[in-house]
Fold this sequence. Notes:
The strands form four sheets. Strands 1, 2, 3, 4, 5, 6, 7, 8, 9, 10, 11 and 12 form a twelve-stranded mixed beta sheet that branches. Strands 19, 20, 21, 23, 24 and 26 form a six-stranded antiparallel beta sheet that branches. The longest helix is centred in the C-terminal third of the chain and has 23 residues, at 438-460. Helices cover 21% and strands 30% of the residues. Strand 11 and strand 12 form a beta hairpin. It is globular. Helix 2 (33-47) packs parallel to helix 8 (258-277). With 627 residues, it is α+β, with helices and mostly antiparallel strands. It folds into three domains: 5-233 and 242-252, no CATH class; 309-466; 475-625, no CATH class.
Amino acid sequence: MRPLDLQSENFNPTGNLAGRGVLNQLGRPNIDFLTLTLREAVQNSWDARVSDDLPVQFSVVSWLLNERQTLEVKEKFFRELPPNLRLTTALPNAKTVRVLAFSDRRTTGLGGPTRADLPPEDGERKDFVGFLRNIGQPSNQVQRGGTYGYGKASFFLLSRFNTVIVDTMCISRGLRERRLMGAALGESYDIVDPGPSETSGSFTGRHWWGRERNRLVDPLINGGAESVAESLGLPNYCDNECGTTILVLDPDFGSMEPYAAMEHLASGISWNFWPKMISRGALPPQMNFAVILDRQPISIPDPEITSPLSEFVAALRALDGTGRVADALGTPLNRSIEVLNPKQHLGQLVAHKTATFGNQGWLNQGYAPGAPSDGYCHHIAFMRAPRLIVRYLEGPKVPLDHVGYAGVFVVDDSVDHIFANSEPPAHEDWVEKQLAHPHHRTFVRVGKRRIIESIREWLDTTRPAQHASLQQPTAAFAQALGHLLPGAEGPGAGVRSADVNANPRGRAAARNLPTANISDMPTPDFIGDTPVVKFPLEIAHARGTHWTRVRPTAVIVLDNGALEKDPPLGSDVPMILGWIDQSGVLQPAKEEIWIAAELSVSTCIVLVSLIPDAAVGLLLECEAVAK
Length: 627
């Protein structure tokens, strides 16, 4: 294959937007560029979905081009290099280059004309020119994640070379067509005294690599695109599949090593896109995600079981009517947010209070605008119709120690376009000053204020004197219950083996005795219509045994940490309602739970009835069974 052709954009007599101007359009968002680019990529992929019935496949993959691939990039792809571009100074001396690919499938790809001055065919969108040619072209589709078209600058900013390669499969004039093109954004420059292969003039700093046709560089098409994509190691397309891969050259991970950067992206997917990762009643998740570094998958935290995202998931399901939430201290918040003058319904707010004991078991990194990061969650997730997280709003704190809340606010469809237009280019907030119409500014400004007021009113109904159930355990509490807080240890830790009354882990291991411990923070939930407290257990089996027999006892814990031995006549007492085994199957309540010692450590969840205005705890006894 002969080297690709380069085209550098001249300033028109009527003026153009310079490359630096494009890079500056995003301003200074309150999130790092790695997360910003991820949000832009996923948002574009969701907007380009081919169907609401098929989940979009989205992946972030990084690998190191080998020396042969790097040489081919130098000699075939970027043989011609323009002045005033980081690529020009850095690439010739590079032995290898790391790349970062954002890929989607089950999307439309970047279709439509490849030149900005050509109209689209009937039914076509101008997606290709929208990404690679035009700047700031507004979307004409309703309820899309994006609105400005400036977010594409994030891909160039993430590259130390300010350069990307775009590989897309789309439908053009009724036929599948693969397109591949390079693009870069740099500083503007002038050429006064041109060399042999140069022309004089003023240049914007925008550049494209492809094949020259009719005095304009267009993308490589079909076979040519496939050949280059294969040489670079880009993911292929299955039969009848469309999609796009954006390859960022030499990504800027800041001070992070590649593995840490990819973990950062994996956490960012969960924080920003958990609404797309969860089932919706009988419907599957709307998107499937993967993160891969040098052919090794990176685990993406599951929002269904990862704190505090699981609490936001519960709130959204309650709002949608596909689930219920259990409030740790009483009644969840479910309120319509409205403006009275002019009268307008803005959206729905749902929140519920939860126990929060610091960072234990948390998804520690809050890689999303405004996300909680200190182990105490008192936040509302903002989203519009696309169900992509705009930001997390920090609300007033609960007037109790170790109690927080999680909630969601979803904009009503009737005003979705107004809130969309209030978003800055990075889509990380709703800013009323972005709007021209005074009523629209009122909707955004008063709506956010009403959310805070609603939370404050809801929290005012929570009086500390009424609720002792979520106070952090004292020493006496720890001695009585052991692992009500994950990791609690000490004499009388609430875990008794068959032949001793107190059995800390170290002593049990030394004597080859089984242990049963509460491994994480107990959480309120519903089993059907019954409110329960879920106690996750970790059972360490004794060596050489076949079973461990666990006897759970539900108890009431008094304010001073003591156990309630003689409950008042007629008062409610907690009961064991059942347990969930390691495979996720709900088992009926029994006095004893038999756990097979197939592995050295097993897990299960014990379900205890929720008693209003009381602290519920769990005592555990365990015994090894040889056969």
